[in-house]
Specification:
Mean pLDDT: 90
Radius of gyration: 23 Å
InterPro entries: Arg_MeTrfase, PRMT_dom, SAM-dependent_MTases_sf
CATH class of the largest domain: Alpha Beta
Number of helices: 9
Structural class: alpha/beta
Number of strands: 17
Oligomer: single chain
GO molecular function, one term: histone methyltransferase activity
Subunit structure: Ring-like homodimer.
Largest sheet: 6 strands, antiparallel
EC number: 2.1.1.319
Number of domains: 3
Pfam families: PrmA, PRMT_C
Low-confidence stretches: 1-24
Length: 384
Amino acid sequence: MGSYQNGVVAGDRSGTSNGGGAPVPVVDKELDFAQYFCTYAFLYHQKEMLSDRVRMDAYYNSVFQNKHHFKGKTVLDVGTGSGILAIWSAQAGARKVYAVEATKMSEHARALVKANNLEGVVEVIEGSMEDVTLPEKVDVIISEWMGYFLLRESMFDSVICARDRWLKPTGIMYPSHARMWMAPIRTGLSEKKISDYEGAMDDWHHFTNETKTCYGVDMSVLTKPFSEEQKKYYLQTSSWNNLHPHQVIGTAALVKEIDCLTATVDDILKVRSNISSSITLENTRFCGFGGWFDVHFRGRKEDPAQKEIELTTAPSFDNGTHWGQQVFLVNPTIRVTEGDNLNFSFLMIRSKENHRLMEVELGCEVRQCSGNVLPAFNKKYYIE
């Protein structure tokens, strides 16, 4: 899940557009590597992803149940990591696979390719996608680019870059489509977060009193900024969670749908949606929203998959995924019942401080089946 600096990087084609005509902000390449790419250079992180059976099964099945897309074809693996997708592509019959990786994980990928006797097919290339030059166009681009709630990490930018530069006009994207979902949930996490925030403030007041008594310095002037800092951490930062389906209390709403063959960076810089959900449980607490995604391997209209495969990160009775779900808590919680409707607005943009992190604004109005309308609320969240 990582191999390209978003848009223009230091020293690379300043002023390049992002595919939608607008100039892309300059991103410091060294800072971006330190904040993001370095994590993917460690085998423990690769192991976490490789141990995700939902993830692995979906990609494995999409390749080996659709060998006609790979047999005798050229493939580009964007952000190859350990090289597993490149290896599968070769095992499915690809003529040539270019496996691009921005970190020193490329050395491990190269060793893995050699150990599986595929060095004649798979070529591992170390470098960012923006910098890499291939000797030919490719028939297939495969990548596991999805971050938390789909777009965190902004790695899809690299896939768009690779597609626009190297995919043949008849080429296929793996995955081909992606969707973002949200649904109302119930959880005890809301009370815990409030308790944690209150505990942090109690500790701060003890600290300021002790500092003034013991050392003669009054630090109470910093109480407000400390409180704001802790509110952001405990009450406004979305939480990673593996929700149980029984925690979902209403219908799931489609937030965003992406066609990986045609999407531009402009399409994902700002995700805006006005959606609704109906409560499906009697007399329960609306504690927040759960957000997840799914991706599909459908091929393209002119060359469809023989077997369409879905990878979903929705709340599951069985195995969860390492992505889990993002939970956006509501404080205070709201009593709702079956038949109530939630009308909510959703806006997600990239953080100004770090383009790989996200900021979300959620507004919600509860229309009760009795006809009453509860006061609307608006809240800002951070996906960090």
